[in-house]
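User: Can you fold this complex?
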Amino acid sequence: MNDRHTPTPQRSLFDRLADMNETTLAALLLAPAFIFISIIVVYPVATLVWNSFNDVRLLTGAPSRWVGLENYLLLLADAQFWRATKNTMIIVLVTVPGSLVVGLGLALLANMPFKWRGPIRLSLLLPWATPLAFVGLIFAWFFHSEYGVFNDLLRRLGLAPQIWFNSPTLTMMAICIATIWKTSSFMALILLAGLQTIPKSLYEAADVDGASKWRQFTDITLPLLVPSMLVALIFRTLTAIQSFDIPYSMPGPGEETQTLAMYIHMNAVDYLDLGYSSALAVVMFGLSMATTFIYLRYVKADGK
Amino acid sequence: MSGVSLQKVTKVYDNGTKEGVKIIHGIDLEITQGEFVVFVGPSGCGKSTLLRMIAGLESISGGTISIEGRVVNDLAPRERDIAMVFQDYALYPHKNVFENLAFGLRLRKFSEDEIKKRVNDAAAILKIEHLLERKPRALSGGQRQRVAMGRAIVRQPKAFLFDEPLSNLDALLRSEMRTEIKKLHQRLGATTIYVTHDQVEAMTLAQRIVVLSGGNIMQVGTPDAIYNQPVSKFVAGFTGSPPMNFLQGSLGVCADTATVLLTDGVQLPLAASWLPRLAGAHGQEIEFGIRPEDIGIEAGAGFGAERAAMSGTVVVAEPLGAETLVTFACAGGEVIARMPPSVNYRPGEAATIYVDMQKCHLFDRANGVAL
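Assistant: Here's the predicted assembly.
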């Protein structure tokens, strides 16, 4: 057969990709992810930041107008913003350590070798799988002044029942209790995974070395659980900063127990003031980023 | 004086049934103070469980364990004054080497000066002084092994327990650490119980070997006794590398001669010293055992009661440098022979091999017991 008549075989897509230089190939392969993230993250965040420097009030019908830092100056002088921030910080400072402690207790319990460990672990998932708003509604009933189980408990203990949602302090307490109940199981799941990575032989070595159960906990379990705790704390703190559903479903008197996320929601959805609510959202975004940054510094320092 | 004493020690695991699963069947063993004893056996023979029972990490279901005369059955590990080296070393990953060694001393409320002195002494013995500041993850396998041993020796306990401590090391490091452990024992003279599945470790380290199988002691003896006078086919096959060769056959016993009859009509005359033991054993089905080093290719002093000839075919020759292992097909089976490196066999070649009949072993084929 004459070679000259043999048709050149069709070059496959893979052959052509292989011939490309590495930079072009890398760009090509990264492009889909880059485009996707641009659409769902970069574009909305950029729009948010842009809006925060503009007066965008949908109710007035006026076109949006560049106002520079005016929205930010406004919020610095806004008492309602500071109250919402304070409430949010209270939720962060109470429920993050609270759920860490409760979650650690649950994780230790679920990690113990006993017969009903399987069902216990499964039941750990339950609060985690329950929708936030649902938890808020359930706990609003628990704390109901007439029919609530908490007041019933107080009465049985011979204490005076409370009108929980009449007092900002009591409402915040109720919100924190509901939040800790809801979020501890998530903490417990992450910590349980962490506990299971600690080799059993370390406890045996400590046992032979002479460590009591308490010393084993403080000298082995806790230090080796730090990485898992940091991961859990990052997630937990971020969701606490963004607290919305539970405080929204368990409102106190007026707007006394409003959180930052609720205040943003009010400005954006009720007042249709996208400029001001964007500025508030940027502040919350900044808080979240700062928290993550601080924790990551810890994680890095721990890895050294 | 008694170091560690086991009397009728049993272990039963609960498996839901009334009687449970018995995995240690009434072990009796006396270990004298300062003795180095190795528990050896295949996986699942109960050797690690037995060690952990002595340590207090596993409860005992029956019997008595005493350490230096004190019954420790119901004492927690920390009250038994023992130290243990684990297979995975079990070093505390967040503590540096110094703190790993010091932890047990701190818990026992030693003074800071005493802790420093003991840790430094142990570090000097194990040549890890330069590693004291490092975390375990920055150490090599051999260094971790040393730290694990250091943690045991700082405490100066009544007994050292080793649970397969060398099995995570590569071959070269393993033989190096084996020597270190032996030196350490010679230096400290502490009662040591060492668990391994590696018969080389058992042979080289032990003053006495305890061969275990299925939760029972098969034989207790010096390495020499275990190697040269195994009480059963199991023990014989477990020691030596390569292990003892076994060929199936039967006995031909007359008034003044005894012969091993192998398949294919091979007959090997037994030494006269066997006769008293073989009375009435004519026709008994046996396993004929011979170690690789007791097979030769030269006729030597001649035939007769001491050396017997067999013809075979070379299957494979494996040169190891100092020696060559040659596998022969003969008498219906295969035997491995330890040969000088000068031999030059080709597969398929016919050869005559000589068996040292004074060194042979006979086992009852039915129950494996040595005759």
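The longest helix of chain B spans residues 171-188. The CA atoms of residues 77 and 215 of chain B lie 22 Å apart.
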